[in-house]
């Protein structure tokens, strides 16, 4: 039985989705909400296998909420619901299972559900790992434009007031990944985590300045006003990689 939770701030949309889902004998609708603020609490309480999530919730960014859901241990699968298919690439960047467009197509909904069922099969998951493709770009956005940026352009990445800011030679950009996800994504690239709030491209390090308690500060090429800390939690790995 596939346990499903529906998140959409329009009741008629939730009702429409429930109408379609009740046609499946192996689907149980365990909960629904129109309030983005209570989603995480309900997921913890209801333990759904799958969440249908509206991207454009009132007072909340659905993509950021999806990332928060998927960051959990043993997270449910997520299918995004949206009226705009340009959000699809952002959804797949954060590993949602699929997306469906409003108004819903019963055929497309079946395709998305079948995809989740396959992903729940352990053998399928293992097969997918072997098919992963190494990507040397990062999807960022600036002034409502999505940009596929070469990662060599990135100087450093900062967590600032719960937002992820990508600093590159062309300016500052936003990103829907968490620092933890970016650290994993770039682990075989020339990037290094220096602090709970910073990841740095080694190629842009200009100076390493000794600081108090045997830690360091980093100066970035072309950004002399910036000083990035190297905290004690990341110091050992930092020194080993750079031969300090």
UniProtKB/TrEMBL annotation:
**What Pfam families does the database record attribute to this sequence?**
LytTR, Response_reg
Instruction: Provide the Response regulatory domain boundaries.
Output: 3-117
For the modification 4-aspartylphosphate, the affected residues are: 54
Matching SMART domains:
LytTR, REC
Query: What GO terms are given for molecular function?
Result: DNA binding
User: Is the keyword Thylakoid in the record?
Assistant: no
Domain HTH LytTR-type, chain residue ranges per copy: 138-244
What InterPro entries does the entry give?
LytR-like (IPR046947), LytTR_DNA-bd_dom (IPR007492), Sig_transdc_resp-reg_receiver (IPR001789)
Provide this UniProt record's keywords sorted from A to Z.
Answer: DNA-binding, Phosphoprotein
Record's protein name: LytTR family DNA-binding domain-containing protein
């Amino acid at each position: 039985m596939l346990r499903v939770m529906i998140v959409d701030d329009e009741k008629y949309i939730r009702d429409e989705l429930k109408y379609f889902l009740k046609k499946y004998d192996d689907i149980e609708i365990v909960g629904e909400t129109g309030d983005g603020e209570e989603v995480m609490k309900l997921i913890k309480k209801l333990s759904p296998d799958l969440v249908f999530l509206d991207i454009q919730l009132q007072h909340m960014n659905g993509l950021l909420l999806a990332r928060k859901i998927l960051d959990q241990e043993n997270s449910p699968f997520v299918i995004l619901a949206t009226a705009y298919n340009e959000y699809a690439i952002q959804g797949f960047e954060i590993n949602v299972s699929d997306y469906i467009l409003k108004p819903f197509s019963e055929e497309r909904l079946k395709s998305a559900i079948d995809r989740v069922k396959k992903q729940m099969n352990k053998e399928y998951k293992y097969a997918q790992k072997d098919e992963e493709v190494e990507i040397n770009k990062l999807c960022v956005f600036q002034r409502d434009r999505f940009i596929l940026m070469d990662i060599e352009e990135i100087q450093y990445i900062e967590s600032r007031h719960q937002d992820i800011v990508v600093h590159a030679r062309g300016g500052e950009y936003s990103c829907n990944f968490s620092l933890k996800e970016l650290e994993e994504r770039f682990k075989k690239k020339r990037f290094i985590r220096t602090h709970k709030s910073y990841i740095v491209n080694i190629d842009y390090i200009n100076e390493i300045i000794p600081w108090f308690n045997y830690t360091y500060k980093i100066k970035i090429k072309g950004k002399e006003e910036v000083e990035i800390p190297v905290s004690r939690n990341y110091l050992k790995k930092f020194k080993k990689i750079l031969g300090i």
